[in-house]
Amino acid sequence: MQPYFFPYIGYWQLINAVDTFIIYDDVNFIKQGYINRNSILQGQSSQRITLQLIGSSSNVLIKDIKVGKNCKKLLKTIEQSYQKAPHFEMVFPLVKNILEAEEINLAKFLGNSLQNICNYLEIDTKIIYSSDIEKDNTLKGQDKILSICQNLKASKYINAIGGQELYSKEQFQKNNIELNFLQTEFTEYKQLTNDFIPYLSIIDILMFNSIDEVKVMLQRYELV
Q1: What is the C-alpha separation between 76 and 60, in angstroms, rounded?
Q2: More confident residue, 89 or 192
Q3: Cα-flanking dihedrals φ and ψ of residue 168, to 5°?
């Protein structure tokens, strides 16, 4: 999976469901996606937060982009939005540690974020970068994914549900690899208001739920 900025619960379900999670960093950056954007709760509505980038372009690989200088501003926004949340005292230091990291390489910055949250949730999945895997980098799409799976001697590959349009189970079977897609079951939880606002960043889930409650959410999915 491409690295995302504080991704939603389905991303974490995927990390938790596998033995090895690949940060797909040697592919082109996608504008208007979730690589550097997400949404948090601000007041009674969803508010977009965006990580500033340097050198971002749809013609540039994710691993070749740098993080900008708005992390302090983002941290202040998150603090103001969640200071009354029940788990703020535990979660805000985690978010602060992530956003104050000295790493400026985008892929590594986001990878550090994923690892820190995995540690907090006691997820022990191995995380590696696709750019560190030896493969034929002229390959594209499904062929590149198959090459990575074969290099790692994988017998099973799980992708997010959106991957159904990109990957063929039959083609993976021909290469002796089982292909599944993870369909998330979203769980409502109490926020600051009575009206639940779904599809927010993992930050929101962590602020309003204990580690044990989040662990239950991590199991609420179906493989198809």
Answers
A1: 30
A2: 89
A3: -105, 125
For helices 9-17 and 211-218, give the axis angle rounded to 10 degrees.
70
Tell me how far apart the alpha carbons of residues 115 and 138 are, in angstroms, rounded to a whole number. 29
Quick one: which of 77, 28, 35, 27 has its CA closest to 52?
Answer: 35
Residue 198 in contact with residue 9, Cβ under 8 Å?
no
Burial of 133 (0-12, 13-18, 19+ CB in 10 A): middle
Residue 44 is predicted with a pLDDT of: 87
Question: Sign (positive/negative) of CA torsion 148, 151, 152, 154?
Answer: positive
Strands 66-67 and 53-54: antiparallel
Q: Indicate the domain borders of the chain.
A: 9-223
Mean pLDDT, the chain, rounded, equals: 96
Write the pLDDT tens digit of every residue in 178-213: 999 999 998 999 998 878 999 999 999 999 999 999
